Amino acid sequence: MPETFPPTERTRVVREPHRGSFDRETIYKILDEGFVCHVGFSMDGQPYVIPTMFARVGDAIYFHGSAASRMLRGVSSGLAVCVTVTLIDGLVLARSVFNHSMNYRSVVALGNASLVDAAEEKLAALRAFTEKILPGRWNDARQPSEKELKATSILRLPLSEVSAKMRTGPVEDDADDYALSVWAGVLPLRLAAGEPVRDARCEPALAVPGSVSGFDRRLSGK
Amino acid sequence: MPETFPPTERTRVVREPHRGSFDRETIYKILDEGFVCHVGFSMDGQPYVIPTMFARVGDAIYFHGSAASRMLRGVSSGLAVCVTVTLIDGLVLARSVFNHSMNYRSVVALGNASLVDAAEEKLAALRAFTEKILPGRWNDARQPSEKELKATSILRLPLSEVSAKMRTGPVEDDADDYALSVWAGVLPLRLAAGEPVRDARCEPALAVPGSVSGFDRRLSGK
To answer: Domain range holding B200?
Structure first.
């Protein structure tokens, strides 16, 4: 498998190209770290951007929805989509307002999404959603019945036209501005987990799974 | 000012309508809490979804970019856009895979974005960006020069066709599943700030501003 995705005219990073990447591992890592993707599609000349859960399996993104939703009525009939995943890493507090920025990592994937029909592929996608949220959860929770599987609509977008864009590192100020008496630096941001809230109807004797109590360590990469 | 935005056929919440809202304060609060919006637009039949910084001023969303970017070449010529802001609040860990979900709050705004021309409005939008990131920062940092102001492209989307959608609260399992021996509950998630990283060229004598050191308390609403 080639180490990079081929750039196309549509995925070429136009603005600040040094922040762009087509590296496969970089793209996988961003997709696998995100919990929510934003799916864009167009209907009657109006774009829509809808947040939804997703998972990557090999070189495909699977995303979730319902046959009743506006999104799926659109894409199941073959509309082009854009799936974007963005991770916020920090606020870049420069000495000048103009050079304020954000550290982030994002992936933009273009293509045509199709409904997953095969029960086996649907099950594999649901398993990927569940395991992505919480490793081990697929085996711990009750797995989908045939009826539930039928009631679940899942779409697949093959990863072919895809690029990453990111900003990392410190403040970049204009040369003259470094002399200013303005505190400057980066404020790191990350998605953090709080204390698990046991369901009111969950017996206290059932221990909190290690994957739940250790979730924040996993998020922070510790 | 009416307390709700009028629903339209395009902003009506089709799936799980009980999770939808047109309440003005609810919509404002979600927009004001988010740091990044996802802007959707369509070019040559292909939707694009691009993350960018933004701020709300009254009943308009201002978002950031550069005249060189693909996004702005599109929308400045009058393309329809969708601006979506999503906040992740928690993972809903049900007893069944099927009832796993996410607590979230999102806003979807539809309309036509236009380039901001007037220097005064541009300045007000930049001020809103800066103050949103860090209250007080506008006065602390060097403000934009005329040249910088000219080099900055800002777009305005009036808030008129807009709706919120959210999921809050505990697990909702099927009646039969409550008897299962599966730990169930909600794992709260939030964007959290770490320790500020002082810029290498920032004199140690310059104290970390209170707005930076107290940032995480503000994020967590404490």
So the answer is: 194-222
